[in-house]
Write a structure and sequence with these properties.
This protein is an all-alpha fold and 207 residues long. The chain folds into two domains: 48 residues, Homeodomain-like (Arc Repressor Mutant, subunit A, Orthogonal Bundle); 139 residues, Orthogonal Bundle (Tetracycline Repressor, domain 2), CATH 1.10.357.10. It is built from ten helices and no strands. The longest helix has 29 residues.
């Protein structure tokens, strides 16, 4: 069977995707600072020139990786609002999603390193903070929409809950990642499920 030839746009998209995938794998293994543009290009099977044809810099690629991961998470959250979903089913899906986040979040180390880089690099900080503000706004809107659809009054402003939720998830993920002997998967799940049940849903997590 004759192989279909890619269009110029398809070829560019494929190159970009391979560079992103290669960068993600190397960043997870070596870290952002220790990884060079040449490392990424070589791992993807391209030249340094191909990298700069798609990204202006390594930090720009880093932000694109984070945005890609965020969009995947957002798609998972949006799926909770499928047509005909009841309050009980939406609550159950939200609990399942966040209770398992510490196991499913494969890019946690990327986010942790991005925060460290933002603390040290002023130029990166500006772009990263703008992105994080966007994430917080989206999560706040999601919380408001969930409250309206489920008919569950919010105990705190959506923005406050969004910031608390992001901080809690990051903290639990950190302890589970670096000290799994003392913070087991069951412990992490109990903390996250308990937060949602009591703070967001206003009920006993055991019910």
């Amino acid at each position: 069977m004759k192989r279909q030839r890619l269009t110029r746009e398809q070829s560019k998209d494929q190159t970009r995707l391979r560079l992103l995938d290669a960068a993600q794998a190397i960043f997870m293994k070596k870290g952002f600072v220790a990884t060079s543009v040449e490392d990424i290009a070589e791992a993807a099977g391209y030249t340094r020139g191909a990298f700069y044809s798609n990204f202006r810099s390594k930090p720009e690629l880093f932000l694109e990786l984070l945005r890609r991961d965020h969009e995947e998470m957002q798609a998972d959250l949006d799926s909770i609002f499928e047509e005909g979903a009841t309050r009980e089913s939406m609550e159950a899906r939200v609990l399942t999603y966040y209770s398992n986040m510490h196991r499913e979040n494969k890019c946690f180390l990327l986010w942790a390193e991005a925060k460290l880089l933002a603390a040290r690099d002023g130029r990166f900080r500006l772009k990263f903070n703008a992105f994080m503000h966007e994430k917080l706004q989206q999560l706040s809107e999601y919380i408001r929409e969930f409250s309206a659809r489920a008919g569950t009054p919010l105990p705190l402003p959506a923005e406050t809950l969004a910031l608390g939720l992001m901080g809690l998830c990051d903290g639990v993920q950190y302890f589970y990642t670096v000290d799994p002997q003392n913070v087991s998967s069951d412990t992490a799940e109990a903390v996250l499920a308990g937060f949602f049940a009591r703070v967001v849903f206003g009920r006993d997590p055991g019910l």
